[in-house]
Amino acid sequence: MGGTILFAYNLSESDNQFVQIHIRMLEELGYEVTASLDEFWYPTKSYNILVINWPDYFFGWNINISDEEVTELNKTLNSWKQSKTKIFTFLHDEYSHFGRGANLNLLFDLCYSKSDILIHLGDYSKKKYSDLYPDAQHHIVHHPLYTDFQTDLERHVARKQLGISEKVHLVFVPGGIRKTEEIDYCIRVFRKLPAKNKRMIFQKTNFLAKPQSLKNFIDLKVWVYFLLHTCKFNFLENIFFLQGFMKKEKLSAYFAASDLIIIPRTDILNSGNIILAAQFGKRIIGTGQGNMNELLTFLEQPVCSSEAIAALINPIQYSALVGKSLQLKIEEFSGHAMVKNQWKQLLHL
After folding, report:
1. Where does the chain hold its CATH 3.40.50.2000 domain(s)?
2. What is the residue-averaged pLDDT of the chain?
3. From the centroid of its chain, how far is CA 4?
4. Below-70 pLDDT ranges, the chain
5. How far is it, in rounded angstroms, from Cα 168 to Cα 143?
6. Beta-carbon neighbour count of residue 125 at 10 Å?
């Protein structure tokens, strides 16, 4: 048992805990674990295992990747392969959340194709990518539970902190909105709710931030877009778009205060916010894309694709686990013992 593992990643206080929790589990299993991006590019010692999470992280989440950067990553991965280090890559995303481009996509293709083991967060991506990358081994390791949110915060206390009336039926959309299709999906679901005093709050929509100037025609277009998507929805439908970084204490309050969580993702594999919403015991609805379908189904939560919204009568009419029952259910799927055991199976411990 044991060995050395390198996570090609720099830990920071603003992390969402995913890497930190996995490192802790592996240390509990007897491994010596290092987290360093510099060590990936310029290793100072040998490692038994290299763990990659997000291929677009290697160049600072930049979406404009040069030919030289593709060559540099390819050369470095080949060097790791020649050193006999086993390469494990988490398949969080099929491609980057932040954009598309031939070279940007190549970063993902390179990491996946040169991996000895591809780690999936669900069965959907395991089945799909087992066919695409038959030379790799494919294993499932679930997204772990978050540990730094106040999941026992009571609803009425959270609402008092946020200044939200007990009479409001609160819908919360967690995470950063990446495209207008995600906003459209949430608004269409929200409109199906029969509650009279309903309100929806988007956690992070930075592209809808208030413009800072009005100097030219482009600025004018930005202002018009801002006014249409804020004032209109604020006043007519009680929908609000927040911007910027939200501290975990405030994010905990929004989760705790909510009656329904909408997962906005329309075309990605995974969403950690399903895990977090379940930890708060909140009713959840989402598109069910990728691995999200099996997770929402396991948690007995409604799944509604973008195409099916028109036929949706009421997002909360379906029987769904809530409260303590839902919290126990997510413990079965993502609890420490479960995920640690999946690592043990992967590592043949």
Report:
1. 3-141, 155-333
2. 92
3. 27
4. 1, 206-220, 222, 317-319, 349
5. 32
6. 23
